[in-house]
Amino acid sequence: MFNFGSLGSDVVRITASSHVRKDSCARRLNYYWDRQHDATYRLIAQSFAKPEKFRIFCVNLVRAIVDKRASTYRLPPRRTFTGIDQVTGDALYKAMNADAVLKKASRYLEVCKTVALQVGWNEATGTPTLHVLTPNVLDVIGSDPQHPERIIVTYPGERAEDTTYADWTPNGFRLLNARGAAKRLPANPDNTNPYGVLPFVPWFDRLPDDSFWLPGGDDLYAAQDAVNVALASLWRAVELHAHGQAWASGISANETLNFGPDRAIALPQGGQFGFAAPNAPIASILSAIEFVLREMAATYGVGADLFDLSKVAESGSAKHAGRLDLKEVRQDQIAQARAMEARLFATLAAVVNTHRPGTIPEGASVGVDFAEQQDQLSEAEALTNAETKTELGIWNAVDVLMASNPDGFPDRQSAFAELQRRAAETAALAASPKSETNEQRDLEPQSEPGTRRRRTRSGGSGGAVSKSRTRPGAGGTEG
């Protein structure tokens, strides 16, 4: 149990002592979001006197690999609630935009290896909120990594003096300024935690041992540094060696030659002039870059051809075979995500019932069905796949419609209603031609004298049609 009376000033000390870990996490996030220029410049400055002469640009292999591996929430999962109305449960998760937040959190988890989800409350809308917090703004205290006892969140300001801290325990909450002094909260004068639990849900890349912050992934960011420096060196070599180097013999060392396409060069007897071909190691640099890209892609199980621009378009079956390496990774991710979802629902219940008592009954739970990975199939492959699943009884027309248009029909109710509408429309269309044919037959004018009717066969299934032909000489034309 923590006594806030003795913790008024230790927040600043705790947050300052973890700056190395936080800086490392912030660097990883910067790399993911394409903010790598400054780090690359500093690396070049360690080896070259004029780093400003280098043109720096990056190929972001960090984000390519992270997004490829973070597949748990690529498609929204299906949640089934027990002990609470399904509509109410869906509304709560929709209000806090859970699927979008968890998709972003799954990618940050791949980058940082540990994240935390914070469940809050929006007083204006009367709905819960969900935010993902990364290690660069978190300090966690407790002996059990899966059940922390205290969490401090740092909210950096534009200036150092604008930084604030939120200090949470199961029974207490304080908001502090940059000096560690508690701010007075009129709505919470006793500095209590109204939820009785920490409104945070830890999410781990793998099952933790004895540390809340999981290691891993350093090789990916070291490889990104190597590729960035190599790309800068490659472009520098191109700029310096794109043109040949002029040389001359038989002239004095201080003599300057003015040469060009419109100038003749006068050399003394025996003098020579020419251009030396550059010996730039461009091919070697390119091979080194390609080697690093391939090896990192293979190491992280995303396929060695992730960065291969020479490959031709693949069928859906070929893509499925190339993704087999990620199946085991995905199974591990789903196991951790399932445990996180259960804790998220329990924390959500504590927060929601504090503000809207009785909304989530005691003992209610949630089951999560994570969407299967879908291959980018061709039209023929998708139709064959749907037909096979329907014949086996795995799918019906509702599943086919949802799979073909997931944005238009995100749930079974809307898909079923659309199929009913289409069935009624089809029945109306089927009945419509008969009634129109009968009406047209009743209203069709009789043939005028001097004409005769001839029946011709139709190429379709509509039977024969009648045409009238006027006898030559009757003053008409053939119809």
Give the low-confidence spans. Answer: 453-479
Report Rg. Answer: 36 Å
Taking the sheet with the most strands, its summary is:
4 strands, antiparallel
Count of alpha and pi helical runs = 13
Query: What strand order characterises the main sheet?
Result: 4-5-6-7
Q: What oligomeric assembly is this protein in? A: single chain
In terms of structural class, how would the helical and strand content be classed? Answer: alpha+beta
Shape verdict: flat
Average pLDDT confidence is 84
Strand proportion, as a percent range, falls in 15-25%
Write down how many β-strands occur, each being a DSSP E stretch of 2 or more residues. Answer: 13
Helix-strand pattern: HHHHEHHEEEEEEEHEEHHHEHHHEE
The amount of helix comes to 40-55%
Distance between the termini: 100 Å
Structural features, described:
- Strands 4-5-6-7 form a four-stranded antiparallel beta sheet, with helices on one face. The chain has a three-stranded antiparallel beta sheet with strand order 3-2-8, covered by helices on one side. It has a two-stranded antiparallel ribbon with strand order 1-11.
- Helices cover 41% and strands 15% of the residues.
- Residues 453-479 have low confidence and may be disordered.
- The chain is flat, with a radius of gyration of 36 Å.
- β2 and β3 (127-133) form a beta hairpin.
- Among the domains are: 19-146 and 196-217 and 330-369, no CATH class; 382-440.
- It is of the alpha+beta class.
- The longest helix is centred in the last third of the chain and has 32 residues, at 412-443.
